[in-house]
Amino acid sequence: MIIRFLLLALFGISMAHLEGVVVVYLRKALGMLDSESNKEAIEKFPKRYVVIEQTREAATIVMLVILSLLVGETWLDKIIIFLWVFAFWDLFYYVSLYLLIKWPPNFKTIDVLFLIPRPWIAPVWLPIGISTMIIIAIVVFYLFRF
Questions:
Q1: What is the pLDDT of residues 67-101, one digit of tens each?
Q2: From CA 31, how far away is CA 74, in angstroms rounded?
């Protein structure tokens, strides 16, 4: 079970890096400074590209759902796997961006967290905190479950 969860975490981290690279390319294509917030980026996005980004976000969620359905045995297991991989994906997305372009400059930086159904905007500490709590909660759940 530990190996399975380590591999699932690695999958989430890999997804995070892939998404981070895509965002770096998008920022460069839009002519954004590395220090500029993603909130400012969304204001520059032509509507057509916002829709394209929404489809990319939807695809990542579909990938996580399918992975959870394939790997999980019970419904609780499937939900936990979804949350586990999502948390690693979300947390390491910011790690990846920071390693690639030193963004965000701090935890108070405002970001566009998600575009579906419309932009969710908050400081980066919020998704980092939520993802960290999810990971800790799942570890504690499995430590005391058996």
A1: 999 999 999 999 999 999 999 999 999 999 999 99
A2: 46
Q: How many CB atoms lie within 10 A of CB 84?
A: 24
d(CA 66, CA 72): 10
Q: Decide: residue 53, CB within 10 A, 0-12 exposed, 13-18 middle, 19+ buried.
A: buried
Cα–Cα distance for residue pair 78/139, rounded to 1 Å: 15
Q: What is the pLDDT of residues 5-47, one digit of tens each?
A: 999 999 999 999 999 999 899 888 877 776 666 677 777 778 8
Is residue 50 within 8 Å of 116, Cβ to Cβ?
no
Query: What does the domain layout of the chain look like in residue ranges?
Result: 2-145
The DSSP string of 15-62 is HHHHHHHHHHHHHHHTT--TTS-HHHHHHHS-HHHHHHHHHHHHHHHH
